[in-house]
Design a protein that fits this description.
Distance between the termini: 17 Å
Largest sheet: 7 strands, mixed
Mean pLDDT: 89
Radius of gyration: 22 Å
Helix content: 25-40%
Shape: elongated
Strand order of the largest sheet: 8-7-6-11-12-14-13
Order of helices and strands: HEHHEHEHEEHEHEHEEEHEHEHHHEEHH
Structural class: alpha/beta
Strand content: 5-15%
Bound molecules: adenosine-5'-diphosphate, magnesium ion
Low-confidence stretches: 329-352
Number of helices: 15
């Protein structure tokens, strides 16, 4: 079973991504199926020996074994082999029903979608389950090539992701608001394009913050000095300049020569748009929220999104989801049935009161909402 344990730097290991795959594992264990968990973590260097040794410590999946053991109340065998050829034997030798294999990217072959690598992985099981939506936009061996060697299925999380994201694409109600922030607009412009003039699923408003806002402002001729700008994207955003649909910040928060957040007036304007929305799709923080003084824009968006009880909301992106910590307090009162602790511990229940879907995908969500075919999902067909 492929899962995604690729937790963002600095996030707790028992994050929502880990939490999100527990239902599928539970279902399999309940049915007396032995589960071998496969995942990657980060981008370990497999060429430079010294760097590889450092990565080995920092990017090992070992710390996840006790977390799974505790959450599932079952012993977990952790398997680390020097050669992938030894994996099958090691899995067979272990007695536990739940097995976690060390970071697949410690080997060459995973991120090149190498068929012989995939075949070695496939030898460890009778069936393959992909519950790693968040890596399904990557043609990796444990996501794509492996499906050639085993009967292959989507896991419960994958199913929920496709249902929730697919609903947005297929049955969009209006007003439909797209919120785009974060670092690089070039990663996200595909989503704007896909919802730009698609008839039924056309976005009515695009609220822009973060690096993308800087890039738009720069394209419109503003001197943004040292602000984060995605220069390569300037030609890509041309079709969306000077459109009534696109909302740019009317005030900004600067730190000396760089724009690091949207201003309070903009928060009010954006919140008013969110308030009248029936569908909201959000990726990317409005500013450098990791610094407290530049978190108000992102916090304001969270508040507006949570206060709108009518809208169907899709939120994704590693940092975007991490920024939920900004409003931990506010949620307890606004979201029925969810306790503050459950949120602080990393989104125990990724579906907040049914109407908000917190996707485990960052790049995968963006690709899916851009209308692209995801290699990992195509491979399951
Ligand atoms: P996500 O992971 O949610 O998809 P991104 O990776 O695109 O989001 O970008 C998140 C990062 O962008 C955050 O770490 C945030 O600090 C940064 N960021 C947002 N706005 C700015 C800004 N104006 N200047 C510098 N960094 C910004
Ligand atoms: Mg990110």
């Amino acid at each position: 079973m492929r899962v995604d344990l690729n937790v963002e730097q600095g996030m707790p290991l028992d994050s929502y991504r880990l939490e999100a795959v527990l239902p599928t594992i539970k279902l399999l264990l309940k049915n007396k199926v032995r589960v071998v968990l496969l995942s990657h973590r980060g981008r370990p260097d497999v060429r430079d020996k010294k760097q590889a040794a450092r990565d080995k410590d920092a990017l090992s999946l070992l710390p996840f074994a006790p977390i799974f053991a505790k959450k599932l109340q079952t012993p977990v065998a952790f398997i680390e082999v020097a050669r992938l050829g030894a994996l099958k034997k090691a899995v067979e030798k272990s007695v536990d029903h739940l097995v976690l294999v060390e970071n697949l990217r410690f080997f060459k072959g995973e991120d090149t979608n190498d068929p012989s690598f995939a075949r070695e992985l496939a030898k460890c099981g009778d069936f393959y389950v992909n519950d790693a939506f968040a890596v399904s936009h990557r043609a990796n061996a444990s996501v794509c090539a492996i499906t050639k060697y085993l009967p292959s299925y989507a896991g419960l999380l994958m199913e929920k992701e496709l249902k929730n994201l697919g609903d947005i694409i297929d049955y969009t109600k209006h007003p439909f608001t797209l919120i785009i922030g974060g670092a690089k607009i070039s990663d996200k412009v595909g989503v704007i394009q896909n919802f730009w003039s698609a008839g039924r699923r056309e976005a009515d408003d695009v609220l822009v913050g973060g690096g993308p806002a800087n890039t738009f402002l720069r394209a419109e001729g503003m001197n943004v000095i040292d602000s984060l700008v995605d220069g390569a994207a300037l030609p890509l955003i041309k079709p969306y300049l000077n459109s009534k649909k696109v909302h740019l910040p009317s005030d900004l928060k600067w730190d000396k020569t760089a724009i690091l957040d949207i201003g309070p007036k903009t928060v009010k304007e954006y919140a008013a748009v969110i308030k009248r929305s029936r569908v909201v799709v959000w990726n990317g923080p409005m500013g450098w929220f990791e610094r407290k003084e530049f978190g108000n824009g992102t916090k304001g968006i969270w508040k507006a999104v949570l206060a709108n009880k009518k809208a169907k909301v899709i939120i994704g992106g590693g940092e975007t989801v991490a920024s939920l910590q900004l409003v931990n307090r506010g949620i307890t009162r606004t979201e029925r049935g969810m306790t503050q602790k459950r949120f602080r511990d990393g989104l125990r229940d990724i579906r907040v009161g049914r109407r908000i879907w917190i996707s485990t995908g960052g790049g995968a969500m963006l690709d899916y909402l851009s209308g692209k075919k995801l290699p990992g999902i195509e491979s399951l067909k």
